[in-house]
Structure formats: C-alpha cells, structure tokens
Amino acid sequence: MVANKLVLTDGMQERSEPFLDTDRLTVRLVSNEDIFLFKAIAGRDDDIEDMNMLVQAGLDYDVVRDELEAQIERLGDDQFATFANEALVELEDRYGVTTPIEARVQEITNRYYQGLEVLQALDEPMTVDELAAELELDTDEVHDRIAYLSTFDRAQRDGDTVRPVE
C-alpha cells in the first residue's frame, strides 16, 4: 500500500525508471504521473504545491487517468478518488490549474457520495420504493445507485429489499 490508499501496480512498476542497481539492491523511481496521483490522494498541504510543479513539468494525463481506473479495479474501492478530487479543487483554487482528469475524478466522487447517501438511509433493510421515498429520488436512480454499491460489495439486493453489506 502507498499512502495507505493505493497499491503499487504492474503499470507503476513498468513506468518506473532504474535509479540504482547493485548486487543486493535495485532502486527504481516511479513516474511523475504516478507521483502526481500519490500526491493527489495523500491529503497533505505541501503536496498541492508539488502537484502544481508536476503539472508545470508536463504530465501524460491519459496515464494518470488509466492508473486511477487500475487502482479502483485493483483495490475494489473508489473512495480514494474523493481525496484526489479535494486535491484537484485545491490545486485550482491556489494556482488556477486545471487538468484533463478533473471531470472523471469528479464523476467518480459524485458517484461515491450518491452511493453513500443510499447507505446512510439504509439503517435497516428497505425496499427500493421505500428508499426512493426516503431520499426523494425516482426508483430508476435508486436502482442505479444500488447497482453501483453492489459493484463494490457495499449493498446487496434480495428481491426488492436492499441491505448494507456488513
């Protein structure tokens, strides 16, 4: 685990560059794109300045976006994207810098919080109709949110009843 939120993926290892190689030790440096992602989720104030410097140096945002998706798949969780979203908002607030990954990170973050809203309403098993009424949403939206939550094993459906996964 990196920063207690990400894992070192095969893609990160492939993008890393040799730095030191001895008989007993090999040190590799991860790419700037991966450092950018680490810094985006770390939640430390100084990382925002570092992110700005990395942006100015030039990044391949397709690599950052692909790694973001790889992390979600590998971790089976997307909560870390909410930290990245906060960092990207702060990057724009402080330095006026926007990046091509913002829309995707915002989409993942919104989806996460919409799912969380359903989970918070599920203090006991409820039907889809009861959830829709409680959250003032149409049933199609509730179905979409439950499908999302099921993807990450956060909620399960048994017929028309929905319950959080413990």
> What is the radius of gyration?
19 Å
Roughly what percent helix? Answer: 55-70%
Count of all domains: 2
Distance between the termini: 23 Å
As laid out across the biggest beta sheet, the strand order is: 3-5-4
Average pLDDT metric: 94
Strand content: 5-15%
Give a quick rundown of the structure.
The protein has 166 residues and is mostly helical. Helices cover 61% and strands 11% of the residues.
Question: What is the topological layout?
Answer:
Layout lengths: L9 H6 L1 E5 L4 E4 L2 H11 L2 H13 L3 H15 L4 H16 L6 H20 L4 E2 H8 L3 H13 L3 E4 L2 E4 L2
Antiparallel strand pairs: 1-2, 3-5, 4-5
Helix pairs in contact: 2-3, 2-4, 2-5, 3-5, 5-6, 6-8, 7-8
Short descriptors:
166 residues, mainly alpha, 2 domains, two-stranded antiparallel ribbon, 8 helices, 5 strands
Any overview of this molecule?
The chain has helices at 10-15, 32-42, 45-57, 61-75, 80-95, 102-121, 128-135, 139-151, and strands at residues 17-21, 26-29, 126-127, 155-158, 161-164. It is mostly helical and 166 residues long. The protein has two domains: 1-109, no CATH class; 122-166. A hairpin with a 2-residue loop joins strand 4 (155-158) and strand 5. Helix 5 crosses helix 6 (102-121) and helix 7 packs across helix 8 (139-151).
